[in-house]
Write a structure and sequence with these properties.
The protein starts with a strand and ends with a strand. A hairpin with a 4-residue loop joins strand 7 and strand 8. The strands form two sheets. Strands 2, 4, 5, 6, 9, 10 and 11 form a seven-stranded mixed beta sheet that branches. Helices cover about 0% and strands about 55% of the residues. It is built from no helices and eleven strands.
Length: about 110
């Protein structure tokens, strides 16, 4: 079955960096468009970044452009989100998502405090 396992979250200070990872199994990862979505405390899901199967066409939510980088390693069935210059408003639970089915993992918590 489809499994997505996120990791790499943590509690950091404003301006710090984090790199999230998502290991996928149970489907053909290399041909699947993938995204990162997040859910801030008390809020709904917000799409953050997406990438095509080949990994050469990333796209971003305007508020994270220039600070977040989505990438993938198809040989390792792994999706990444490298986040720099983190802000308090980036706080939330981050999920990787297989876009064709909206399947997502259990999420990894990111807390950014000043």
């Amino acid at each position: 079955q489809v499994q997505l396992v996120e990791s790499g979250g943590g509690s950091v200070q404003t301006g710090d960096s984090l790199k999230l990872s998502c290991t996928a199994s149970g489907f053909t990862f290399s041909s699947s468009e993938m995204s990162w979505v997040r859910r801030a405390p008390g809020q709904g899901f917000e799409w953050v970044a997406g990438i095509n199967g080949a990994g050469d066409s990333p796209y971003y939510l305007d508020s994270v452009k220039g600070r977040f980088t989505i990438s993938r390693d198809n040989a390792k069935n792994t999706l990444y989100l490298h986040m720099i210059s983190l802000k308090a408003e980036d706080t939330g639970v981050y999920f990787c998502r297989r876009d064709s089915t909206a399947a997502r993992g259990q999420g990894t918590q990111v807390v950014v405090s000043s």
